[in-house]
Design goal:
Structural class: mainly alpha
Shape: elongated
Oligomer: single chain
Largest sheet: 2 strands, antiparallel
Distance between the termini: 67 Å
Radius of gyration: 21 Å
Strand order of the largest sheet: 1-2
Amino acid sequence: MRIGALARRTGVSARALRYYEEKGLLVPGRTSAGYRVYTEEHVETVRRIRILLAAGLNSDMVREILPCMVDDGEFLAPGCEDLIAAFEHERRRIETQIAELNDVRSALSGIISAGKALASR
C-alpha cells in the first residue's frame, strides 16, 4: 500500500508517517520509481509507535525500544528486562513534572484568588 492508504488505515497523517521514517521508526519499501510501499506489518508498527508516543516517550526512545516491544494481546510489553527500569525511570520523570505543574497551578490559583479579592473591594 502507498502512504495515503497507510495514513487512512492508521489515522496518522502522511506527514507524520514521513516524520516516523525520518526518525528511523518506520522503514518502508520502495518501488523502482522511488514510491514508498507499506505492508500490513507497517500498520502494526504505526500502532505501536502511537502507543509509545502517547505514553510520553520521545521519538528517539521509541526508536531504541521498538524492537524489544511485544504485544501481549492487551498492552505492549517490554520484551527486554532492562526496559522495565527505563520505563520506571520515565514514569518517575513524568511524576516529577506532574508535581511541579501542580505547584504551578496552586501558585496561579493563589494569584487569581488574590486578584479577585482585590477587585471585589
